[in-house]
Write a structure and sequence with these properties.
By secondary structure, this protein is mainly alpha-helical. It has 9 helices and no strands. α2 packs antiparallel against α3, α3 packs antiparallel against α7 and α3 runs parallel beside α8. The radius of gyration is 20 Å and the shape is globular. The two termini are about 20 Å apart.
Length: about 200
Amino acid sequence: IVWLLITAVAIAVGMSTIFLDVKILWDSYWAPAIACLLLLGTAHLYKTWRRDRTIATALEGTCQLMAFTAVAAPLSYVAATTNRPLQDSTLAAADKLLHLDWMALLGWMNAHPSLHAVFALAYASFVPQTILVLVALTMTGRSHRIRQFLLTFIVTALMTIAISAWLPAEGAWAHYAITPADHPAIRPSSTVMINA
């Protein structure tokens, strides 16, 4: 089922180039494609010659994770082409109901610059955490859980992409017209690059 979901997403992304004004940098898929072929080849060796299904499953799972992220990232940009009205005001109202005050949070962040590195590290740890889950499941002999983890990861990501298509938003920075003067200690990236 994991490969079917990956294939469906790849087809959707490919079809988007026909029906929508979307251009994909197909050359950016070479690296993940080669890495996946190497992972699948090694997994096959571990299944047939070494007869170690645990490592084979981990290698195939890593390949599936890499393949999914390569096709899901462009899908999130395709989802943004729905041209639905921005929902920032609705989301801000929901934040208010939850007692989340973005400007107060920004003020707190500005007052605690020593925590920025901790939060940046936590944010950047998403990929290593995902890899760590695959390694931990393999090392603890629970490779059967890898497929469960991957399916959960993929379904959750697809749901998130669908929600972002239905409730598009620019984000708090644009909604509250936050300028660099409002966040002297926080430097968001201004570079946008779309690759596999």
